[in-house]
Structures are given as structure tokens and as C-alpha cells.
Amino acid sequence: MKKKLLDCLGKLKGNSVCGRLAIISVIVIIVALYCFNFIDTEEQITLTSIGSGLIAIIGLYFFYKRLKNQDIQRVDDRFHSAINLLGSSETSARTGAVYVLHELALEEDKYRQQIVQILCSHVRSKTSETEYQKTHKERPSNEIQTTLNLLFKEEKCGLYTQDFAKVSGFPKADLSHAYLVKADFRYTQCQGAYFWGAQCQRASFRGAQCQEANFFDAQCQGAYFWGAQCQGAYFSKAQYQEANFSEAQYQEAGF
């Protein structure tokens, strides 16, 4: 049996990677056939049987590769379709795009960092519109509050509550200069988030995790930080008249 096997492998040998892979595949096939009693004698080991098995393995490999490529294409299509919808004039379409991007970021790491930056940019861009600020003086739109929830709230599977967001180098949330009047950040995880120059009047950060968040030059009049964790947060030049910091933890915070 040994001589027969060596004769067969001698005809398949080569210095290329494909040649070496072919030899390994042949060995695997023979061992499998022998273990499962598909071959019982030396005479049954032939180049034909080996070749058939090798062709089957190669076929399975290319089938798997084709499926993988199709999965990658589907991910790309979902991402680009959602980005296009995010620019829609229809509120429902934009909100739907936010949900798609959120789900995609949870499932795939390919676009994950890009998605959190896109969603933050969407909040900044949309809330900077004059018409938006006129219409939403009392509370954020459903679209914007939904986006904030999907970024920061744990019960909404917020992206910044996930383990991958705690890895060094993951982009911090950037809501600089966003219009966040009366926004709901209760019990959110906003560690290290940038609120530079943001309008956070009467926003609620009750019980939020705001460690090392940056509120430089932010408008926080009447904001509610009851029970918030603000250790190391930066409030230099922020306006926080009538803000409520009862029970808040703000050791080493910069005021």
C-alpha cells in the first residue's frame, strides 16, 4: 500500500503552492476513504479515485468561496443603500437607514468604525439646519433621538455600549456643535464623547456615563446631570447655569 501511495503522489508533486495543496488534499482523501472503509486493499487506491476526490474538494472550495463573495457583496450593497437613504428628503427613509446602519455595525466589523462616524455626522448635519432648530426647540425629532439611542443606550443595543467600542483606537463619538436641546441621554454611555460647542440646554444626562466627555464651550443651561458619572469630564467655558449636578460624580472634572 505504501509503494502504491508513493507512486500516486509522485505524479502529483510540484514546487508550487497548488502542488503542495494538492498533495495534502490527496493524503486527506486517502485517510478519509480508508477510515470509512471505502477502500480495503492496496489495489483500490488509484489515481482515478484520488483525482475524483480531489476534484470534489476543489469544487467545494470554490463553492464556499463563491458564497463568501456573495455575502461580502450583500454587506456592501446594504451599506451603500443605507447611505443613499440617509440623504433622502423623507424622514421615514432616513430613520430606516439609521436602523440598517446600526444593525450592520453590530453584525459586521468591516464598516463598523465608519458607521459610528457617519451616524454622529448625521446628527451634527441634520441638527445644524435652521429649519430643524426652529421646529425642534422643545425636543429632538424622532429621527435624531432614535439615532442617539442607537449610539449610546444600552437597552437599544447602543453601538458605544458594545465591547468593540471599548477597544483602543475606536473613534469617540463626535457631537460637536450639534443642536441637542432637551435631548434624552439618560443612562447612556457617552464616555469620551465630544460635545464641543453643542447646544445641550435642558438635555437630560441623568445617570449617564460621561467620564472624560468634553463639554468645552457647550451650552448646558438647565441640563440635568443627576447621578451622572462625570469623572474627568471637561466643562471649561461651558454655560451650565441652573444645571443640576445632584448626586453626580465629577472628581477631577474641569470646570
Order of helices and strands: HHHHHHH
In the predicted model, the low-confidence regions spanning at least 5 consecutive residues are: none
Q: Give Rg in angstroms.
A: 29 Å
What is the count of helical runs?
A: 7
CATH topology of the largest domain: Pectate Lyase C-like
Query: Quick check: average pLDDT?
Result: 84
Structural class by sheet pairing and helices? mainly alpha
Strand element count:
0
- Quickly give the CATH architecture of the largest domain: 3 Solenoid
Identify the overall geometry.
Answer: elongated
Our count of domains comes out at 2
Report the CATH superfamily of the largest domain.
E3 ubiquitin-protein ligase SopA
Could you tell me how far the N terminus lies from the C terminus, measured between alpha carbons in angstroms?
A: 83 Å
Q: Largest sheet, if any?
A: none
Q: What helical percentage do the residues reach?
A: 40-55%
Strand-residue fraction? under 5%
Determine and state the CATH class of the largest domain. Mainly Beta
